[in-house]
Structure formats: C-alpha cells, structure tokens
Write a structure and sequence with these properties.
Layout: H1 2-18, E1 54-55, E2 66-69, E3 74-76, E4 84-90, H2 95-111, E5 116-122, H3 128-137, E6 146-147, H4 152-156, E7 164-168, E8 174-179, H5 187-198
Parallel strand pairs: 4-5, 5-6
Antiparallel strand pairs: 1-8, 2-3, 2-6, 4-7, 7-8
Length: about 200
C-alpha cells in the first residue's frame, strides 16, 4: 500500500514538474474535444481560454470517492449530486496550481450558488494547515477547504498530473476535463458553467 501510494505521489510530482498537461498525441498536439453523445451541448465552449477542454462524448458516473472538509468531516462526491461541480485537484508544491487558484476563486465568487460549486481539493500530504495557508496566500477567500489526505482522488479520477479540473454534471457524471492550468475567470469558463447549470435531465 505504501509503495503504491508513493508511486502515485511520484507520478503526480513528475507530471506537475515536467509540465505534462492535457491529453496529447505523439506529435504533442492536444486532441480536440469530441462532439457526439451527451457532451455535444458543451463542445462549443472548448475554445479560447478553454481550448484544451476535453468534452466527454459519453458521460459516465464519476467514482464516488471520499475526501474531507477542512475540519476532517468525511464527504463524498455524491453529496453534491443534483448540483454542477468543478473539481480541481491541487497541491501546495504545484506552481501551476498556485497560478490558477485566483481564477478558480473568481469563478466561485461570480458563479457559486446552490446549483454550482468549485470543489478545489488538496491532495497534498502536508495536511490541512498547509493547504489552508496556501489558499490564504493565493487570495482564494471564496473557496472552501477540501482535502484528500489519502490521495485517493488522483487514482480514482485518473489524473495524469496536477492541476486537473473535472466538470461533473447534476447526475454525478463526468462531462468534461482539463489537464493543466486554465483561465477559469474567462468568458469561456463562465459560459461553460452557465451551460452546464442550464442542462436538463
């Protein structure tokens, strides 16, 4: 167990340090988002600041993995079923995470509601205090503190590096994801969330 956990941490660290962001072809180009199936309605928003957004052609239920709030209360992704959530996995040692945190905070400040929340979840082994300090340092005063002390989410959500951001629809299904930093306070991001919230069924 300890060896597999260490391996996961190493993979995440190497991906973050090397700048391995996005789903790339052998030529290094980001694969365009697909248009078929459930995700077709969100495809137009994979442009501009969100050009690297991978829209899922068929949405499948996200794994109902457990994590904690800042006080150690156990939570599950299913606790947000019925709402649209934008999961962002980050760590204090991840420089791109630090860069995009203010934008995620701005997105939550402008779009956060009973229908939508940014779930910025720390997968840092330094603990809740270090993660809370990071949010304060980056000015993320609107984001709630969530932590994954056992680093289950990296594996469960198949995150190839940090940061990774995953859009979950009201039915608890993965609608889209973006690997690497993005400008989440952009017009494209606001439009994406509005469209996701407005989806029926």
């Amino acid at each position: 167990m300890k060896k597999s956990l260490a391996a996961l941490i190493l993979v995440a660290a190497l991906a973050g340090a090397a700048g391995i962001y996005g789903f790339q072809t052998p030529e290094g180009k980001v694969e365009p988002a697909t248009t078929a199936g459930d995700g077709e309605g969100l495809k137009p928003y994979a442009t501009g600041a969100l050009a690297a957004l991978l829209v899922r052609p068929e949405r499948k239920p996200a794994p109902d993995v457990g994590f904690q709030d800042g006080q150690g209360k156990p939570l599950k992704l299913s606790d947000w079923k019925g709402r649209v959530v934008l999961i962002n996995l980050w760590a204090t040692w991840c420089a791109p995470c630090r860069k995009e945190m203010p934008a995620l905070n701005a997105l939550q400040k402008q779009m956060g509601s009973r229908d939508f929340e940014v779930l910025a979840i720390s997968v840092d082994l330094k603990g809740a205090d270090a993660s809370a300090a990071f949010l304060k340092e980056t000015g993320a005063d609107t984001l709630a503190l969530y932590i994954d002390p056992e680093i289950k989410l990296i594996n469960a959500l198949q995150a190839p590096g940090l940061p990774v951001t995953i859009l979950i629809d009201r039915q608890g299904r993965e609608a889209a994801r973006l690997v690497g930093p993005a400008e989440w306070a952009s017009p494209e991001a606001f439009a994406l969330i509005k469209a996701a919230v407005a989806e029926k069924g």
